[in-house]
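A quick aside before the break. I want you to see a complete sequence-to-structure record at least once, exactly as it would be stored in a machine-readable document. Don't worry about memorizing anything.
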Amino acid sequence: MKAFAACHVHSNWSYDGSWTIEQLAAEFATRGYNVLLMTEHDRGFSQAKLDDYCAACRRASSPGMLVVPGIEYSDGSNTVHILTWGNIPFLGEAMPTSAILEEVNRAQGVSVFAHPRRRNAWRQFDPSWSEKLLGVEVWNRKTDGWRPSDKGAALVGTSVPFVSLDFHERNQFFPLTMVLELEGEISERSVIQCLRARRCHPTAFGITVTDRVCNMATRALALPELARRTGSWVFRKLNHGSIAKVANRGCA
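That is the input. The structure line, written in tokens, reads:
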């Protein structure tokens, strides 16, 4: 059975998320997805909170939408981030990346190297991690914008290329999908088994993302992405100026 997954999604269980899990499940269902691969930040989590969070994901799931709980772990410098899914106990905050990968692998979970371009995390990539990684993000909507990463593809090696939203807010909706080839019906167990067996592939705008597609998209979308970033910068500056004026009037 084929399933369409939105990868790297944050809810208000993360310190920087605002959407509830129920809101996310409903909205992504209208966009053609039937699996949410959630990834809440490790900051502020504990085993008790993880247990409650997993229960909340089960409650938000429905026959048309499976919500899979996951944790995004960061190292001590908050540079390297690892996305994890599976029946894994909470591993703690600021864990060394090698220790995270070892524990996830021991628990028969799956892990993905997130947004290589953020804080130049790609520079810290250790080739020895590859044997324990399922995948590497080659396109992260939040970090990379409207075109693929110029660093992720070089790190993939024998791993699976992943496309992810890193969703926190509405402007990060984008047609990036991980297509899963499941054995049997959609369930958390079948999704994890599918990922571990690497029966999955990335698509953008409905097109399978290969090295060639990444290269073409990087070139073709360079100008639109530059325009998007410039427009976003101008908007933030203007908005910041408006807020400052209001604040100054209030102090006058």
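Two observations worth writing down. The chain has two domains: 2-219, 221-252. Residues 221-252 form one domain. We'll return to this after the break.
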